[in-house]
Amino acid sequence: MSDQIKYVLDEENIPKSWYNLTADFPTPMPPVLHPGTHQPVGPSDLEPLFPMELILQEVATERYIEIPEPVRDVFRMWRPAPLIRARRLEQALGTPAKIYFKYEGVSPAGSHKPNTAVPQAWYNKQAGIKKLSTETGAGQWGSSLAFAGSLFGLDVLVFQVRVSYDQKPYRRALMETYGARCIASPSTETDSGRAILAKTPNSPGSLGIAISEAVEVAAKNPDIKYALGSVLNHVMLHQTIIGEEAIKQCEMAGDDPDVIIGCAGGGSNFAGLAFPFLGLQLRGGRKRRIIAVEPAACPTLTRGTYAYDFGDTAHLTPLVKMHTLGSTFMPPGFHAGGLRYHGMSGMVSHAYELGLIEARAYQQVGCFEAGVQFARTEGIVPAPESTHAVRCAIDEALRCKEEGKSETILFNLSGHGHFDMQAYINYFEGKLVDQDYDEADLATALAGLPAVAA
Amino acid sequence: MSDQIKYVLDEENIPKSWYNLTADFPTPMPPVLHPGTHQPVGPSDLEPLFPMELILQEVATERYIEIPEPVRDVFRMWRPAPLIRARRLEQALGTPAKIYFKYEGVSPAGSHKPNTAVPQAWYNKQAGIKKLSTETGAGQWGSSLAFAGSLFGLDVLVFQVRVSYDQKPYRRALMETYGARCIASPSTETDSGRAILAKTPNSPGSLGIAISEAVEVAAKNPDIKYALGSVLNHVMLHQTIIGEEAIKQCEMAGDDPDVIIGCAGGGSNFAGLAFPFLGLQLRGGRKRRIIAVEPAACPTLTRGTYAYDFGDTAHLTPLVKMHTLGSTFMPPGFHAGGLRYHGMSGMVSHAYELGLIEARAYQQVGCFEAGVQFARTEGIVPAPESTHAVRCAIDEALRCKEEGKSETILFNLSGHGHFDMQAYINYFEGKLVDQDYDEADLATALAGLPAVAA
């Protein structure tokens, strides 16, 4: 074991391939179904929305897929991301455990999201696309795609949920600094937006509505494609660069994680860190505990059902078999906007069904408490989403203390909280409370799942 | 020349010593004078405010001063800071010049300020001090001292200029996340604050008033010392870690800068990058162009006088010979709050008088234009202060293009702008305008300089 704090790889050690867990799953994933016919979708069904290279990645079964050189060249701006030993946090906890975190907040947009925004922008550019449309809630994804678009000369149109557009002007400013155009959703620029506004002129918007607007714009214009920042298989694939780097960095540190932790909304930062380690296990390596942490107010894995469901509230998307709370489920307004999604990546759900990963749900006040302890020991203020992983890492380290075990804990610090300080203000002012979802709403949402023959 | 983008040194390459330019100045610096007697101050005059180790560094003449191991250990959290080749910016400009920047925004607080906050907190802790008081305007310094205090278990009291306290709640939240207490200045907690409030109950505050409050608290309580984030010799000393690293990194890159650029308010990030290179020159190395960039609305070097002056508006500090606009000078309210200071570091001023460095003043709109171009090519949104260095680097690169010269340009990107997005919003909305200072105000301020016998 070395005595370093940071494990930083050279640029030539940026992985040359993404890792595809599909190749190593012991049983294949259920197919994605057409929303009308309930038959497996083919590449042509997805063509209006995505360029063919991404569609092929969505259904790929090869274990490794090469990262294009121009994409790796952009990654050199901030990757390899550091693996950091949280020695001061360990000392503050008095734990015999070793705590490492992979820090993805070093990216220009401040989170792991550019790991997929850059290749998505690149493949679209290669396909002759001029413009991308997308939605954003918390703003991490919108600013990442805006950044990627600026590098490849693509116009980026971001439908930002109205309430976020109004309450987070600095996130919007970041997107505009990168040259993107932000539109408050619901907007008058699409049929779906106008339909909502006709009924509810003061609608605060929702991710579901914003997705509908972004998808509509892409579906109606051959020069515009749609980009999604989580959930889909190709997004999980792109994020595996995190875990591929972390495997090398753990070797540098002379250490091997016993517990691997990531927060999970759509599942991409969790999958990015965990899947390469899980692949090692499925190919004969040792078993590690792998924990997905979700908000108690939106507990997709711990309380949802494994079933076919729509990815959006307007039911425009294909049907994916996943852990879901039902596409009409309305989580309460907690602060980790990036974790407020009714469903979960099909790949993460499949791994959970196979018993390959654990899941845990946390209330937000304890997460912010962990975030503040982390900031005061390690200096970095975590994004509200990432505080869920911090909370779990601290709890595991305290368990090690109780049990007198010196396990090695690795978690993904998916982003910094520089654009989320209002949540910390609310926490300090005691305005942040734990929140439960509405049981009746959940029951209704689950009862409304589409009937799909087995 | 290598083909890398980032030049990242290992932790063991964090410099073991700070470089003291005083040792190599061809003529000695003028002494600091007591405000009452106009005689050179001795260490005991400064003891109520600073611990002895920092006072000794203030007057030190040795070329190298050892960095304590516990301070280096904290630096390992983010240092060595990367040297980055701005290839995409070079391409966008079509320049034959090579542009490198040293990126100090990787620190937890987001700027170069922790380079001095950490040793200042450490020396105070060693001296048995329990609490530090300071002032902050833009907030970079206050959050850096708050961060450093949290690591060493020191209480930190920050007098934040009222208008900044009200307008920048996220900066305040960052300081509070690190455990500091922020007080809007003028406050009812000090005589000087109460005196102001009695006269002007709605006073927006000023850096001068906040300094008076922070100094008063320290002067009246033996357990509390005062900490300053720029201007003083020991602050310049601590920042030389930037340039010491950059010299090694330029060697890694196989390149040697012809032009070195930093923005200058009190002078510390500029000095931090430039002084080690200047030392090489003064010890027989080659001459490089070294440019300090200041705001046209507060042009201390380009329009100020070299004279003895007070560091604060309330005239509590010793007299320092420096480039000054006069301590009563009121710059207009432009956006780079970190550059709104009437004076300049005595060391930087001395170097300027000796003809060792150049100075240049820029208006703010062109600086933000450069900041946006930088963000769209290099991904990082610069702090408003740092955009001055970016503007100058771009202008030098465009000069190289005109002259067909492939010079190497190195600038200090002293911090990111994540907590300054309102300035970018104003820029995009066309509300940002170039601003000139009031000539009559400058004349009055200069006429009011203290009369000090030569």
From TrEMBL, chains A, B:
Presence of keyword Amino-acid biosynthesis: yes
Keyword field: Amino-acid biosynthesis, Aromatic amino acid biosynthesis, Lyase, Pyridoxal phosphate, Tryptophan biosynthesis
InterPro entries hit by this protein: Trp_synth_b-like, Trp_synth_b_CS, Trp_synth_beta/beta-like, TrpB-like_PALP, TrpB-like_PALP_sf
Name of the protein described by the UniProt record: Tryptophan synthase beta chain
Job description of the protein: The beta subunit is responsible for the synthesis of L-tryptophan from indole and L-serine.
EC category: lyase
Cofactor(s) listed: pyridoxal 5'-phosphate
Gene: trpB
Family affiliation: Belongs to the TrpB family.
EC id: 4.2.1.20
Pathway: Amino-acid biosynthesis; L-tryptophan biosynthesis; L-tryptophan from chorismate: step 5/5
Top-level taxon in the UniProt lineage: Bacteria
Enzymatic reactions: (1S,2R)-1-C-(indol-3-yl)glycerol 3-phosphate + L-serine = D-glyceraldehyde 3-phosphate + L-tryptophan + H2O
Ranges where the Tryptophan synthase beta chain-like PALP domain occurs: 78-415
